[in-house]
Amino acid sequence: MSTSPHGPRPEHHDEATLVVTGAQVMDRDGTFSPATATVTVVGGTIVAVERGGTGVDGRPTGCAGHGDERVPGTLRHDVHGGGATLDDVQGEGARLGISRGASDGGPPQDAADRRRSGTVRHLDASGRWLMPGVVDCHTHLGWTTFLPEDEDEDDDDRDEDGAGGSAADHPMASAADRTDAALLSRAAPGLAATLRAGVTSVRDAGGAASAIRDALVAGRLVGPQMQTAVATITDELARDPAALRARVRSLVAEGADWIKVVATGGVMAPDGSEDESPFDVRDLRAVVDEAAGLGVRVMVHAWGGDALTHSIAAGVASVEHGMFLTERQADAGAAGGVVLVPTLAIYSEVAEMARRGELPERVRARASRVVEAHPRAVRRAVEAGMTVAMGSDFGTTDQHGRNLTEIDHLAAAGLGAAGALVAATQAGARLLGRGSGGLEPGQVFDAVLLTSDPTDTAVLRDPRTVETVFLGGAAVG
Ligand SMILES: [Zn+2]
């Protein structure tokens, strides 16, 4: 397969070598050493990260003082004291790619192929900060408004019979194509905005049909890599494990990568319902078991109470929101490896909307209770040793693209800047099974170049802080 390594990223795949110099690069612990690093990417995969100090060959590195003389195809590389050739660097990249990248299961490529394949591009990122691509573990990219039932149906009735293919002649296929086209065009702006914001992977918590994910894979839509729950399992199937198992199977047949169970009410629910769980632990175990048999995992919307206790006991992969998490639940979550995905930004925005009178009065009281409790839950989780991953829960046109705001909320809630940056990158990547989520050899180069130091997480509220986003090694915005 050495000649066709395209896999799921045809649009972004790039055989060229990219060398990013001069930036402060995020370390595994979410901090940025003052020394700069050189990141070498071949074919979309990081093959070397040479931190300040010594390079891969033991020679001193350091990019201070390099100038604008670099042009594509030539190289005056400080790592080697100047004068390194194109072949030198490609040979080095290939060597590292084989010796280190292979351990990650990536397809090691023939070094000669790589050398033939062409260009070395340089990016002088002096005075910038380079962090891994952000993983948003809770989005609703199929939505554009606060209440999904407000979503307009796309009335576009253009006929695509002009294609004349046999598929278009089939009335069912034609209807499906039209539905997909409407779906994709409605999701497109939010997807593009989310990627531009620095989010390179998402897990959609309901609302994004698998057609959206598939269009991203095929390069027909621009956006982050997506895993999707497609739709949610709600209380009408509670206390009926056989029906729950059947629902899991049908969701997976619809293309779900995750099973999402809604185990408590949400912010718009009737009074008192947010702590009630219609599902008992037997129900949730049935869902987890059926999902596991089909190779997918389970995420549960659970504000607190029995919903959290039962979810954690049933061994779900993550609990969403969790603002009324108790110490006991946090201990059990930590012991069971359950990830908490708090969603702080959305609830403070909902509280703000309610304060402005845009939502019913009962929502106002509930939202302010939630906003008060949520940071405490995050601190409890951290103190108990539970992993926290980032989720924005954003679903409106004006929210898509502001996802990194959540990082500032996580920092303020008790993770601190470094902890919040780890939650937004490595913790999410591990939850989604997308590598280490760090800027390390063997990892796909999903990364964000920032104009300001993100350890002051407030800068992440301003989308202009994101200068360049890399998806699979290619600069996409
Ligand atoms: Zn949600």
From TrEMBL:
Domain of life: Bacteria
Keywords for this protein: Hydrolase
Domain (Amidohydrolase-related) ranges: 130-475
Region: Disordered, residue numbers: 96-119, 146-177
Entries under SUPFAM superfamilies matching the protein: Metallo-dependent hydrolases (SSF51556)
Compositional bias annotation for Acidic residues: 148-162
GO molecular function terms noted in the UniProt entry: hydrolase activity, acting on carbon-nitrogen (but not peptide) bonds
UniProt xrefs under InterPro entries: Amidohydro-rel, Metal-dep_hydrolase_composite, Metal_Hydrolase, Metallo-dep_Hydrolase
Protein name per UniProt: Amidohydrolase family protein
